[in-house]
């Protein structure tokens, strides 16, 4: 019932919003540090569910915290939506389902590629550069930053 996602959330909510995607229950044990929590559960990050998430965030106040759990591709989309709503990086916690596909940002052609094999390298779908995947997750881009794995050999 995604259309009721924001129901029950008081205007000006300043607690922790825990949004999970798919079958994950990673947010269940999340310690909110005694702050009130509001749980949202979505099947996946679709334009509809992201719109619901935006409306919830729009009704909450500065100071709210957001916890996202689920497959990386869904978290990525949700984190980008949260950034659009003005949430800062430190206000968003990502509990990524490591088994899911990883999203990698290519600095060469600015394309994001979904690495379904979840390996340490992936071929960029934009420019075919083999990208090594770093641990640095950019919430602004909603992806892990990649770099050319074989740059030294190529030049
Ligand atoms: Zn590329």
How would you characterize the overall build of this protein?
- Helix 1 crosses helix 2 (72-84).
- The longest helix is centred in the middle third of the chain and has 13 residues, at 47-59.
- Strand 8 (130-138) and strand 9 form a beta hairpin.
- This protein folds into 2 domains: 2-96, Rossmann fold; 102-150, no CATH class.
- It has 3 helices and 9 strands.
- The strands form 2 sheets. It has a 5-stranded mixed β-sheet, covered by helices on one side.
- The chain is an alpha/beta fold.
- The site of zinc ion has 8 residues, from loops.
- Zinc ion (ZN) binds at residues 106, 108-109, 111, 124, 126-127, 129.
What's the topology here?
Elements: E1 16-21, E2 37-42, H1 47-59, E3 65-70, H2 72-84, E4 92-96, E5 102-105, E6 112-115, E7 121-123, E8 130-138, E9 143-148, H3 151-154
Parallel strand pairs: 1-2, 1-3, 3-4, 5-9
Antiparallel strand pairs: 5-6, 7-8, 8-9
Helix pairs in contact: 1-2
The structure holds zinc ion.
Residues 106, 108-109, 111, 124, 126-127, 129 line the site of zinc ion (ZN).
Task: Jot down its keywords.
155 residues, elongated, 2 domains, Rossmann fold
């Amino acid at each position: 019932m995604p259309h009721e996602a924001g129901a029950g959330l008081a205007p000006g909510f300043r607690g922790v919003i825990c949004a999970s995607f798919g079958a994950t229950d990673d947010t269940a044990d999340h310690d909110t540090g005694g702050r009130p929590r509001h749980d949202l559960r979505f099947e996946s990050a679709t334009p509809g569910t992201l719109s619901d998430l935006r409306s919830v965030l729009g009704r909450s106040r500065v100071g709210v915290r957001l916890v996202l759990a689920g497959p990386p591709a869904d978290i990525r989309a949700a984190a980008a939506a949260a950034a659009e709503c003005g949430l800062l990086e430190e206000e968003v916690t990502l509990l990524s389902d490591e088994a899911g596909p990883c999203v990698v940002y290519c600095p060469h052609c600015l394309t994001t590629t979904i690495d379904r094999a979840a390996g340490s390298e992936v071929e960029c779908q934009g420019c075919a550069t083999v990208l090594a995947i770093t641990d640095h997750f950019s919430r602004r881009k909603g992806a892990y930053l990649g770099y050319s794995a074989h740059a030294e050999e190529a030049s």
